[in-house]
Amino acid sequence: MLVPSLKVQDLIEEIRGAKTQAQEREVIQKECAHIRASFRDGDPLHRHRQLAKLLYVHMLGYPAHFGQMECLKLIASPRFTDKRVGYLGAMLLLDERQDAHLLITNSIKNDLSQGTQAVQGLALCTLSTMGSAEMCRDLATEVEKLLLQPSPYVRKKAVLTAVHMIRKVPELSTVFLPPCAQLLHERHHGILLGTITLIMELCERSPAALKHFRKVVPQLVQILRTLLTTGYSTEHSISGVSDPFLQVQILRLLRILGRNHEESSETMNDLLAQVATNTDTSRNAGNAVLFETVLTILDIRSAAGLRVLAVNILGRFLLNSDKNIRYVALTSLLRLVQSDHSAVQRHRPTVVECLQEPDTSLSRRALELSLALVNSSNVRAMTQELQGFLQSCPTDLRADCASGILLAAERYAPTKRWHIDTILRVLTTAGAHVRDDAVANLTQLIGGAQELHAYSVRRLYCALAEDISQQPLVQVAAWCIGEYGDLLLEGSCEEIEPLQVEEEEVLALLERVLQSHMSLPATRGYALTALMKLSTRLRGDNNRIRQVVSIYGSCLDVELQQRAVEYDTLFRKYDHMRAAILEKMPLVERGGPQVDEEAKESKEARLLEAAPVPTEPQASKLLDLLDLLDGPSEDAQHPRPLDPSPGGALVHLLDLPCAPPPAAPIPNLKVFEREGLQLSLSFVRPPETPALLLITVTATNTSGGDVTHFICQAAVPKSFQLQLQAPSGDTVPAQGGLPMTQLLRILNPNKAPLRLKLRLTYTHFGQSVQEIFEVNNLPVETWQ
């Protein structure tokens, strides 16, 4: 005979009293066996108690799937005690992945139309928790009827269920659109809050709903103004602020309705100014309302004075003692720095003070904002502040800080000397954290400033003598000493204090770099090359340099060994050529292929201007020679008569090696269109690299809602090489705003027909969309 089943309270006490997990598992297994037996026997009086125990077991993480069908039986029961536990079990044990959830649709429908308020509330809660798209479509009419029920309890739950239905099935917006206007007249704050949320969901998913609800902006403004002027209410006030939850939600809806709409923005301007000036900021509830007000002001087409007021409020937030408020202020100002740079610039001292925050997340945000505030007028002061922060900042921020200072100096440097000094300070303070191109940029900068060669080599020599641990600094110093070591020994620099340096000191310093365990192989390569170049710039004996070079001829590092062997060979076999080979490096112009092509064209133009006009026999002989290269032909045996004009022969001669005329532009191709989102491809094939194809993906949006979290991914056959550049953003603005672009670089060495597969992932009107398609109709010019 089985032991009688435990009550719910007794089961909880026994489980909590278990001293080990094995004891707990034993108790639960024994009780689950009783529950299964009770379900099989079909005991209707105690079924709800057995299911309640099973739900507690489910909450502890143990399997309880065998109780799903019992939930359906209890929901169909006419007793409220059964329905209450049955609906609770359905919310916990059922979801869209199980087909059993569809079996309760009819029971929910009956309870919504015929049940009491308590039963209707249970059915609405269950539907809003686990209702699938099919259930939402079947029950939308019943929920719409309940939106206008006399009972506030049922109306509030019906509104929240409608929100869930819109999120599941956006097509149902036409069903819930008419009741919303009537629900806005509600005095019950809970219903009003749910209605505002429902309208937000409708506007985000339907352009028609957005246009429709812009007409109720004056009504929303009046509701918010009433909340502001209402006195203290024990039912709704929190920390002296009248229902901040409702105020925040109304402000969010106003932000959606006023975005890119002039008339709606003008209607709410006065109210936003009133909220911004009258809200109490001594408590967190007031700060929440004020922050939403600022976001609304900045997102709509507000007046210029109102935007300045919003930025000043964010500036006051930076002085708040709450770290969270300071963080959101820094984040918001960072978003504004491009559009309202001058207004944000007024709070620069406060932002700089936030760099010293002990909280890393705050100091990181302050660093990003400080770097964004740097311009040509404040670059000296801001760089000084950032360099002070670089000396004491946490290790994980050093790389970002150093890179930001170098970029700001490169962009806004007032003089070359200041630029060089700034980079040297960064390399001295945080050389191990700078970008990889910092060494090349500084050597380029020093090489291009001929008047600062002596100054630079002395500064770098002093810095190297003090510290040889910062590898980028050591590399630049070794390069500079090798190039301009003669200026270092002359002591002719008037811009710094006189420094007398002997040849032996310079050689000893470079040898110290070579022997240091902190030196990287690349750094030793710089030092070895510097020693070799000094062999032509120093007046003393080169035996010491030759000895060091020969030692590294047996180095374990292959690159360093090869370099030392070549230098040693230069000493032994080609000593007469050493001075010419080791001359100062010519200045390399910075720029890409376009700069090189322009320089080449200008050089050819100068040659043409200076070229003498050849005589006719000389031109004829050259024409015959060029024809022989192409093989015999009738034209080669019988040359055409040349132009009798004096310059005619030169014109024909120069026409022969000319490049073919530029190819016609490749036409653009539209590859995707859905709900206002369009994707088009434009193509460019650089003449200097025929195998390379540059594809610019341009996404435009003519719909009424922004396309967010936009990601474009591409794939090509294995015979191609594909490189995706970073996109210009992840949001495609609505109403034909600024398009989003992304560059694809495809290398096609075999000139094979191009096939491209694209995958688009984005969110539009609150729905996540993923599209995968193949582009097979690319123009022939893209690969031939």
From TrEMBL:
<keyword id="KW-0333">Golgi apparatus</keyword>
<dbReference type="GO" id="GO:0006886">
    <property type="term" value="P:intracellular protein transport"/>
</dbReference>
<dbReference type="InterPro" id="IPR017107">
    <property type="entry name" value="AP1_complex_gsu"/>
</dbReference>
<protein>
    <recommendedName>
        <fullName>AP-1 complex subunit gamma</fullName>
    </recommendedName>
</protein>
<dbReference type="InterPro" id="IPR011989">
    <property type="entry name" value="ARM-like"/>
</dbReference>
<dbReference type="InterPro" id="IPR008153">
    <property type="entry name" value="GAE_dom"/>
</dbReference>
<dbReference type="InterPro" id="IPR016024">
    <property type="entry name" value="ARM-type_fold"/>
</dbReference>
<keyword id="KW-0813">Transport</keyword>
<comment type="similarity">
    <text>Belongs to the adaptor complexes large subunit family.</text>
</comment>
<dbReference type="InterPro" id="IPR013041">
    <property type="entry name" value="Clathrin_app_Ig-like_sf"/>
</dbReference>
<keyword id="KW-0968">Cytoplasmic vesicle</keyword>
<dbReference type="Pfam" id="PF01602">
    <property type="entry name" value="Adaptin_N"/>
</dbReference>
<dbReference type="InterPro" id="IPR008152">
    <property type="entry name" value="Clathrin_a/b/g-adaptin_app_Ig"/>
</dbReference>
<keyword id="KW-0653">Protein transport</keyword>
<keyword id="KW-0472">Membrane</keyword>
<dbReference type="GO" id="GO:0030121">
    <property type="term" value="C:AP-1 adaptor complex"/>
</dbReference>
<dbReference type="InterPro" id="IPR002553">
    <property type="entry name" value="Clathrin/coatomer_adapt-like_N"/>
</dbReference>
<dbReference type="Pfam" id="PF02883">
    <property type="entry name" value="Alpha_adaptinC2"/>
</dbReference>
<dbReference type="InterPro" id="IPR050840">
    <property type="entry name" value="Adaptor_Complx_Large_Subunit"/>
</dbReference>
<dbReference type="GO" id="GO:0016192">
    <property type="term" value="P:vesicle-mediated transport"/>
</dbReference>
<feature type="domain" description="GAE">
    <location>
        <begin position="664"/>
        <end position="779"/>
    </location>
</feature>
